[in-house]
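Have a think about this chain, tokens included, and walk me through the fold.
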Amino acid sequence: MSEFPNCPECNCEYTYENGTLLVCPECGHEWSCSETGDGEATRIWKDANGNILKDGDTVTVIKDLKVRGASSVLKGGTKVKNIRLVEGDHDIDCKIDGFGAMQLKSEFVRKG
């Protein structure tokens, strides 16, 4: 149902995001994404419109991007299939026809 972790206090599954915090509607507990109960940080990747991204999604580039080492630019509107989310500044690993393997920032793509 929810892509957010259950509440660490009451185990409610209906948690939601409020700014940088996660909130439980049942008990009112608030915590940050990095304070999950199992000790590991849970990162949520979002596109330029705020939609949550997952591995295997198809995204569209929203503006022309200069590609270092290439003579041409990656045009806005280019579809990228089967993305992989990784930690770091450029948080999307993908393969693009005509360019090969590259990394993109999630702020320059939209889901769908």
The mean pLDDT is 85. Residues 35 and 53 are 21 Å apart (CA to CA). The chain is about 0% helix and 30% strand.
